[in-house]
Amino acid sequence: MPHLPSSKDHPTHLVLDWTQWVWPGPRRVFSEDELARAGQQPWPVSIDYYVLSNVLVLLAINYREMSRHWVLLICIAAMALTLGVLGLARILWRHPSRRRLNLISYGMAFSVALVVALLGRPLLAEQAAQYGRVVKFFAVFGLSVFLVVYTSFLFLTVIRVQQIEARLRELDEQAHALKLARRLATAQMQPHFLFNTLASVQHWVDTQDPRAGGTLRAFTQYLRATLPMFERESLNLAEELQIVRSYLEVMQARLGERLRWELEIEPGLEAVTVPPGLLLTLAENAIGHGIEPALRGGRVVVRAWRQDQQVVLEVEDDGMGLSSAEPVERLGLSNSRDRLRQLHGDQASLRLLPRAPGALAQVQIPWPAAGASA
Questions:
Q1: What pTM was estimated for this model as a whole?
Q2: How far apart are the first and last CA of the chain?
């Protein structure tokens, strides 16, 4: 769930909250799923270059002040400490949290103080007169370095938390927009089919044509099957085929002997997931642009079978065919292609191919993604 601001996040509350003085940092804690979803940005290597170059400059500036006996050890220790700090910064980058920030920072300070306490006195035993000043220098220097590193870690954690929160909000907004677009695309399907069917039923009722009863029953069955799909992100193939069957029965009642249709479905594909109305749109295009314009009518065949790691879905008609070598990208096909991409990504495809006579719409869906249980 996205993080919602509360009274605890108000600036006044942060000032009054004494824990922020000794245990500072953002309160937001990300789950592993949230980090995997939005926290995959790579570590900015430019930070490494910036910090290492500054440490080298500081060593060069203070080179003359260093003892010749300790200069190499000091340089090695400084670079090792810098690399260690950068390594800890990467940990905070991958898993930013208030707890981890303070544990790392205070743990680092304790470790450095312990090393100085254990090794400092033996190394300077021969210079007891200068020991007090040396300890004071290292104490001030170490505290300064600690404050700089701690402040840097704090800013890094706060900025990183805000970055991940912003990315999560962006992903949530994208998912919401895709959901709305999916519903809009589904709602745009077949408006003329609905109006034409209602007009036909009304005309047959007025003229007491016996086709009115059968068409109305098939149309009611079609509506019962299709209306629930407006709230669904996907349907299994069995549900989609039931909708297609209802649609073809309505069109059979309207067109009579001018329409012949078949379903050729390989067993075992019932759980394959497809965007709602995918085959329905292809069947509607086949009849509306292929069969209805042809005086002789024609035949529509809906097929589904597995081919290696792909599921192939086809809607073929022997009607008027395509008007040119480059088929027109109609709204229904464009919406279907977009919804197919949203559900299965770039591994899915939809093609419209010419036939003699007629046309073939072919969909390919990856089997692993499509074979999940509904």
A1: 0.54
A2: 25
